[in-house]
Amino acid sequence: MLTERKKRFADNYIMSFNATDAARKAGYSAKSEKALGVKASKLKNDPEVKKYIEERLKTKDDSLIVKQDEILSYLSGCIRGTETEKQTFVLRSGDKGSYDDELVEREIPLKAKDRIKACELMAKIYKLMDKPPEAEPKINFTIDIPRNR
Fold this sequence. Notes:
Strand content: 15-25%
Largest sheet: 2 strands, antiparallel
């Protein structure tokens, strides 16, 4: 049976993928770091713990993974100028020697270079940039100018 402590170990392991650290956070202890590592390795290979970890990884929250539509929607917003970014700055007031500083946040539109980068990424996604540029037709002409001698 999987104990509460083993579940804590498994849950911490899923977050960091560091067995020794997960064992420490779950409340396991040993005389040395090496001994704790050995204990953590045994816990990680315990069949019940392994099964629990596999099940938890399968049922991991689907909302954590970015979907294709979200990416395309965000890039479209960047291109159209509807996406903004936060800018934080310090507003200082007062007399010399006694200043009052206040942190102020505001939303600002994306810079042109960021919007151009979003355009480039969208063009790559839709394979608009894969085609080689069409060569302009070459026109050869010769002009004979008679010289007076």
